[in-house]
Model the fold of this input.
Amino acid sequence: MSEVLEVNMFASKLVTPAAFVELLETSGRKVTLRECELFSNWEYEDHTSWVPADVQAAFQELQEGILISKIAQMHFLVDDRCTGGYAAYKVSPDQFELSVWINTSGLESLQGDEVGADNRSFYDQLTKTVGQVGKQHNFTSAYVGLETSVEFSEDLVEMMRNSHNVFRWILPARPAWIPPGFEVQEEEGDWVVNRLPRSS
Done:
């Protein structure tokens, strides 16, 4: 069964999706841009859409809307069959949320909500990319999961406690609390909170 893999980041600087598209391409995936959208709220008021020339051009066009508190989305295809996208918007006066997602249909190694032998290299590279991009944009937290539900809070512990379907957190500092069934380790200056395999 296909699910939506999500990578989300909260940061004080607006994050371009270019690094995440590049990650898919360097892992052997073909990424084709389809459409950009701007709208005022999740009821899609003041909606506009267009077909972008490339990732950078799309981001430049979306950026102006995001900075005036519009919601921006960019849609793409992976390997000509899997839908994916990017969204960015302000969640507070000094915080942006970036979301990159991909439907895992046809990508068997990315199905399932655990990091294992068949997908570890992808998720480790993803974690490295998130950390590098995050440092450049003053990130406060990032997470990876399937069909996630996370509500932004300035209180990281509260946000982690109330999250659903997250199997990896990537943080710039060691968290004060670790969710039950997770472990924490430092990787290249970031703190990775990873869910333990259920069999352990």
User: Anything to note?
Assistant: Residues 120-136 form the longest helix (17 residues). The chain has a mean pLDDT of 85. DSSP finds four helices and ten strands in the chain.
